[in-house]
Write a structure and sequence with these properties.
Layout lengths: L1 H20 L6 H4 L22 H13 L1 H4 L31 H10 L14 H11 L3
Helix pairs in contact: 3-6, 5-6
Length: 140
Amino acid sequence: MTTTLSRPRMRWKMSLAGLLRLGVGFSLPLVFPLLLPAQSHSSAPAAPAPVLNQQQQTGKRLFMQNCSLCHLSRADNPKSNEPGSAYGGDLKGLFQGERPMTDEAVQAFILRGLPKKMPGFEHGLKLEEINNIIAYLKTL
């Protein structure tokens, strides 16, 4: 019984050794492509993540706790046909572009919210915490 189990292994080793003896060793990457390391096709290196100061780190933590459910991209967003879109909109570049938002406008929006779209956080977040979130949003 042990000889029948070891025979297929032996045949496999013999076959591989036979291929190598025949000079087919150079074609092994074609036969076994999973053995090759992955190659990146992008020519530009990824931009390093910005280093956050203490206020921005606190803002990121608060954003993840209070805002990320709606404002981070989700593959299963039922409100959009775009894969990976956010329920409440992507906040990247909120303070940049042709019409950048002001700190005061974003602060008021977070405090009051938008009826039937976004809750206000006037009772859930302190003004200092909202300012920390704004500091984090500026890094996006």
